[in-house]
Amino acid sequence: MSSAARKKSALAITATALIALAAPLATGTTASAASVSTWDKVAQCEASGNWQINTGNGYYGGLQISMSTWRAFGGTQYATYPHQATKQQQILTGEKILAGQGQGAWPSCGAAAGLGADHADPYPTAPSYPNPSSLPAGTLVKSPNGPEVKVMISGAGIPVAASDVAPDHYDLSKIVLIDNAAFNGLPSAPPAGTVVHDQAGGNARYVVVDGAALQIGAADWTAAGYNIRPDMGVPTAWLQGAAQRTVSNGRVVMNQTGADNNRYVMVNGTALHISAAEWTANGYDQRSLMGVPGSWLASAVSQQIENGTIVKDASGQDPTVFVMAGGTAVSLTYADFTGLGYDKRPLESVPGEWLTAAKAKTAPADHTMLLSPGSNTVWEVVAGKKRAMTADEFGAGKRSFDDVVSVPAAFTNALPTV
User: Fold this and answer.
1) Nearby residues of 205 by Cβ (< 8 Å), 6 or more positions away
2) Taking Cα atoms as reference points, which of 106, 103, 56, 107 lies closest to residue 83?
3) For the chain, is the Cβ count within 10 Å smaller at the N or the C terminus?
């Protein structure tokens, strides 16, 4: 308050302060709240923005509150003197004064700052949101800060696409708001081993491993015990994407039925057999072992490892690096490794016995396409030999240059020409 006006109104303020504590006045010129920015303007006008000011004039702090007013409006719950309280505590007390006296409690500065026109709550109470982990499976949730909706499945928040709402019968009127940080922190896939199906319907069942949905064959459903696990409906769009994902590289898997004692390590979607000798020697026994459907595993075992995958012996005994081309492990010199750009790709560790078998193959599988430095010719492997391809074999609806594997010239030259 300006000092002249303050002296005139000091007694009136103190008297009505006591009344306001019991029954706050409600008049057309009284505001009951104001934003922090507006209170900052008052403090700038009253005390040059210094919330800890004490000049000895009988008024204290950023809002220049007298001791009698400070006591009357409960400010002493925070500090003995106004200037000893925090900015927030002074504003909270100022809110009570404003409710009881209106902006006239600061005759010049209140009006200048617009206290009477600002009705914002300076410190709104944060809404209380439920813990998402306490919500039942199938609950739709969203953050108050965005439009994205997720459905709770085994502690994970699975995104619900707009295309899922109608076919999956999601009722958007029953969305539960949860804290923004909790919403964004939800795992994007159910825990490994969760059995799921398309919420829109269908008989297919899947088990989730590393965010990938592995289809469960009819023979595995009961034999592997999947039939006794909770069967969770998930959004159609998410399931379609998860069915295309691969289990994480390095994940050790086995047939869930237990009828097959073999163990495998996943590399780029292919299950590579781990021999008994390597199980402990290469530390595979220290990794988490995950049971998977037998039919899915059989397919992953038979699948040729992705062309262009860079591998080395997991034992570390052989430092040689190889590139996979049509199921054949082609050795690379250091010059090849860097010159062909393979040093930019992940280097995957694979079981030594599997790698030995892959190295022993004399030629890549049929239709593998090869290209070597120093030549523009792309070769197609046919029955262990190479055939020069023509430019018109590539293009839309034909072969793709993206599928060509770069290999050392020595390897290509060793293949007989058709």
Assistant:
1) 195, 196, 197, 215, 216, 221, 226, 231
2) 56
3) C
CB–CB of 134/165 below 8 Å? Answer: no
Q: Are 194 and 153 in contact (CB under 8 A)?
A: yes
> Tens digit of pLDDT for each residue in 328-343?
999 999 999 999 999 9
Cα–Cα dist 403/406, whole Å: 10
Whose tokens are 């800890």? That residue is 52
Distance CA 138, CA 151 (A): 6
Distance between CA atoms of residues 378 and 376, nearest Å: 6
Amino acid (one-letter) located at 32: S
Burial class (CB in 10 A: 0-12, 13-18, 19+), 52: middle
Cα-to-chain-centroid distance, residue 292: 25
How many CB atoms within 10 Å of residue 170?
18
Mean pLDDT of the chain: 91
Q: How far is Cα 328 from Cα 387, in angstroms, rounded to an integer?
A: 18
Long-range contacts of 214-219 (CB under 8 A, 24+ apart): 214/247, 214/292, 214/293, 214/296, 215/243, 215/293, 215/295, 215/296, 216/293, 216/295, 216/296, 217/293, 217/294, 217/295, 217/296, 219/294, 219/295
DSSP code, position 307? T
Q: What are the pLDDT digits (tens) for 103-155?
A: 999 999 999 999 989 999 999 887 889 999 999 999 999 999 999 999 999 99
Bridge partners for 387 per DSSP: 380
Question: Which token pair is 326?
Answer: 């049509």
Residues 220, 224, 230, 235: what is their CA dihedral angle, to the nearest 10 degrees?
-40
Tell me if 46 sits within 8 A of 63, measured CB to CB.
yes
